[in-house]
Known about the structure:
Blueprint: E1 8-19, E2 22-33, E3 37-41, H1 48-55, E4 63-68, E5 71-72, E6 80-83, H2 95-99, H3 108-117, H4 133-145, E7 151-155, H5 163-180, E8 183-187, H6 191-197, E9 200-205, E10 208-214, H7 226-239
Parallel strand pairs: 3-8, 3-9, 6-7, 7-8
Antiparallel strand pairs: 1-2, 1-4, 4-5, 9-10
Keywords: ATP-binding, Cell membrane, Membrane, Nucleotide-binding, Translocase, Transport
Protein name: Aliphatic sulfonates import ATP-binding protein SsuB 1
InterPro entries: AAA+_ATPase, ABC_transporter-like_ATP-bd, ABC_transporter-like_CS, ABC_transporter_ATP-bind, P-loop_NTPase
Amino acid sequence: MASKEKEIVLEVDDLQKSFGSHQVLRKIDLKVKKGEFVAIVGRSGCGKSTLLRLLAGLEKASSGTIFINGKPLSGKNPSVKIMFQDGRLLPWKKILQNVGLGLQGDWKECANQMLKQVGLDGRANDWPSELSGGQKQRVALARALVHEPEILLLDEPLGALDALTRIEMHQLIQSLWLEKNFTAILVTHDVEEAVALADRVILIENGEIAMNYPVKLPHPRKRDHALFSSTVNHILNRILGDGGHHGLRAAKN
């Protein structure tokens, strides 16, 4: 990669993905800088989760290349972690053991410290069944971040949570992102969520990037700020020009 792009941690070049005769992603070109927070939105079935799985190395592209720090991605990369909509916790392991999955050596101190950072200090010896949905997602976040990933992929991790818990999780993710300076890529149906967290919002339509919109609001974001509402509405109007909602959540002003 060229020296002028030394800040680019992730680059997607002419990425395409088909399942049989059905082409999901047609031509994706994208560059993400180190420490940037990018949100990907779009109608249901547009391919945004497929894109995230490709970035995680969980799917193989039909054509095109993904570069992590200038090197082509081939399979999973240890510097990239993904967090899914469900916590995917192992019910037969206690919380500390779930967080420590994959860690080597004397890992318990690191896992305990990460639990403290996500607000679950004192819950290390509980079972997943004893936690609420929001708490389980905090454990999943701790499990991803304990590996100190350079890139964190978030595949609608808050979609099943109630509104207040979602806002609390927004604040937690934002504070940890600001503290740890990892690069984050979020897939979401919720445009308010995208604007609350991201530096820019990417819209996928017909398998291509149809919009790449910068969010010009300082962190932490204030939802009652006039620019917050106008940004949400601008993106929604672009997506829902036909007046249909198609699985996307509109702003509630």
